[in-house]
Amino acid sequence: METEFQRVVVIGYGKAAGEILKYIADRQADYGYRLEFIEHEQHALSVTKKICEERGISFSVLPDKRELGGYLNEIQEKTLLVSASNNYLFPASLVERAEITIINFHNALLPDYPGRNAPSWVIYQGEKRTGITWHYVTAGVDEGNIIIQKTCGIGPDTKAYELTEQLMDLAFEGFTECFDAVLSEKAEARPQAFSPERRMYRSTEMPGEGFLDLQEEPEKIYRLLRSVDYGKTGVFPPLQTEVKGARAEVLRYRKVSPEKKKEEAGTLYLPLADGNLLKIKYRLL
Question: What are 45-89's pLDDT values in tens digits?
Fold first, then answer.
């Protein structure tokens, strides 16, 4: 197999980045490129660092945006940058260089839900399906031509962390399907069709503005709770609510059957359409 790319640089973190990094390493013998990994957002238990150590892959930690930008701008040879679960915004000066090609994994079906925390927003908006997009990176955020998309369903009880895991698996699957086409520069990418209503979701935004309104329909409340539920990773701060005129913080929630209802302090029960109850634990502030 042939490619003009002499160097492949992976930037990202987490499960998807790790699996993609291993796949690219396994394909080195086919193409002969030089491989390296950059961790921009540091994690205490870095899966990718261990992979690099085991396989002898060059590993760099560049948390400073200016330092990372300077490092990438020094690249001279024809290079493919693979952005996998990476929140660094590549500057236009880098994106527009002829010798550099950048592809990015986005955890939604572009052109819908561009920006950050897409799994949260699709759950909150009540979508039944979502998916992933691999696209070329341009100066506009999440605006580049689409290389491949993979879809999946969103169940009535799906939480943000569960959907994120599923999307990571799809990202790896999609990457392996398009990698050869990207390296040979024969990928049949298609432009995005932007709607006038298209909006960018920012890292500073939180579904429901972070407030759980107990006057809303229980199904919408349940969607909000699931949309911000990333387990122990702390993507979002706890939801706030108001109970009998007092400010409160949501501690946890779960769906229970009516026979499991117990009168407990700091507990609310809301009836759901499927006959179950939504149990919400809170503490007054």
Answer: 578 989 999 999 999 999 999 999 999 999 999 999 999 989 899
Q: Answer yes or no: pTM beyond 0.90.
A: yes
**Tokens 């948390």, residue?**
63
pLDDT per position as a tens digit, 121-171: 999 999 999 999 999 999 999 999 999 999 999 999 999 999 999 999 999
- 135 assigned to active site: no
* Domain 7-183 in this protein, CATH class: alpha beta
Strand, helix or coil for residue 269: strand
pLDDT digits (tens, 9 = 90+) for 193-227: 998 889 999 999 999 999 999 999 999 999 999 99
CB atoms within 10 A of CB 259: 6
Task: Pull the structure tokens for residue 209.
Answer: 């503005």
Q: Where along the chain do its domains lie?
A: 7-183, 207-284
> How many helices (H) and strands (E) are present in the chain, helices listed first?
8, 12
* 191, two tokens: 């432009």
CA end-to-end distance (rounded Å), the chain: 63
CA distance 156 to 128: 8
Which residue in 40, 43, 106, 135 is the catalytic one? 106
C-alpha–C-alpha distance, residues 163 and 285, integer Å: 31
Q: What's the pLDDT at 10?
A: 97
Buried residues in 56-70 as b, exposed as e (16+ CB within 10 A)? ebebeebeeeeebbe
